[in-house]
Specification:
Structural class: mainly alpha
Distance between the termini: 47 Å
Mean pLDDT: 93
Shape: globular
Radius of gyration: 20 Å
Largest sheet: none
Low-confidence stretches: 1-8
Length: 349
């Protein structure tokens, strides 16, 4: 397989790097109240999902079953290490100022086992003040959604390809999941990847990109009015992704901005808390400079974490991988989510 990868290098879409950075920044500024539009943060996450569906779907369509341990291992260390680091920092900060209660432990359990998106947000309104830092880590729900997608998608696309590589399968899933919300755009991303795998000239052409751009603009205008978010947001998200499917070479600036997007998304709460602490300690009045300080701290921290964590993971993952470790990752991933679901259904409800 390594030889095949060398002969056929993976496609690279440089505009996706800038898109990731923009989306993470939107979420950051939304949580900092600089962007007040209700759907801003959620819509940015929808685009993240569509992007993941497209990219991971494309990878899995070319992945053989014997290569699954490597796929899971690569996904796990790129997602888990930064996630658990951010999660640990959140818990430590919470322990400095909040008591440990049964409800506090419950929410920590959900985030640790990757099921917070299922059991956490529905309780936010009633129990938000009992969550670590009053629900500051609520945005972790989207990472949990993606982790669940990384476990389900390979089963369909690689283990049972006759079913999983069918457009009908993913279209039916999209319709069914429309009532759930979180997974629809991931499915649309996979659908686009399947179409691209079969008919690359249809997806990878200027006409399709232009049509996608027009649709995304129209969908965004509808979202600004009274249109149904649940119906229009997935269309907007996948249209944005398809409009930017332009192959090219990786650039230094793009790699850096795309690289810091994940640590920025995970850890921008630190910038917000730090900024609030600075203004409180020095008895400063609220002003526009508050947003500047918030952004500076968040971007600086994200860059630092990218260099010492995410970038190192990318550089070392081939050295760290072994078939046994890949299998252990698979076992841990499915077991942890199973424990989380059982715990959520049996012990906490």
């Amino acid at each position: 397989m390594e030889q095949n990868l060398k002969r056929e290098p993976a496609d690279y879409y440089p505009y996706f790097d800038f898109l990731r950075f923009f989306l993470a920044s939107v979420v950051m500024f939304y949580h900092g109240d600089l962007i007040e539009w209700t759907y801003a943060g959620k819509l940015a996450v929808e685009v993240f999902f569509a992007l993941s569906g497209w990219l991971i779907g494309g990878i899995l369509l070319k992945t053989r079953s014997e290569d699954m341990p490597k796929f899971y291992f690569n996904r796990a260390i790129r997602i888990w290490i930064p996630y658990y680091l951010a999660f640990t920092l959140l818990i430590l900060a919470s322990l400095l100022k909040e008591p440990i209660t049964d409800k506090w432990l419950e929410f920590v359990f959900y985030k640790f086992t990757w099921v917070y998106n299922i059991f956490g947000p529905p309780q936010l309104a009633e129990w938000g003040d009992m969550m670590p830092l009053d629900g500051t880590g609520n945005h972790f729900w989207s990472v949990n959604v993606e982790e669940q997608f990384y476990l389900v998608a390979p089963l369909l696309l690689v283990v049972v390809p006759k079913i999983g590589k069918s457009l009908i399968t993913w279209c039916l899933l999209s319709v069914l999941l429309l009532f759930v919300g979180s997974y629809v755009t991931l499915c649309l991303g996979v659908i686009a990847a399947i179409v691209n795998n079969r008919f690359p000239k249809i997806i990878m052409c200027d006409t399709t990109r232009l049509i996608s751009a027009v649709i995304s603009i129209g969908a965004f205008i509808l979202l600004l009015t009274t249109a149904s978010y649940k119906l229009v947001a997935p269309i907007f998200a996948i249209s944005i992704v398809l409009a930017l499917t332009i192959k090219g070479k990786k650039t230094g600036a793009g790699a850096l901005l795309g690289g810091i997007s994940y640590p920025l998304y995970l850890n921008h709460w630190i910038g917000l808390i730090s900024t609030n602490a600075i203004f409180k300690v020095f008895a400063l009045e609220a002003s526009p400079i508050e947003h500047f300080i918030y952004a500076f701290i968040s971007y600086a921290l994200a860059t630092f974490l990218y260099i010492i964590v995410d970038k190192k993971i990318h550089e070392k993952r081939k050295l760290w991988f072994s078939h046994e470790r890949g299998v252990n990752v698979i076992i841990y991933a499915y077991t942890s989510i199973l424990i989380g679901i059982v715990g959520g259904l049996v012990f906490f409800n």
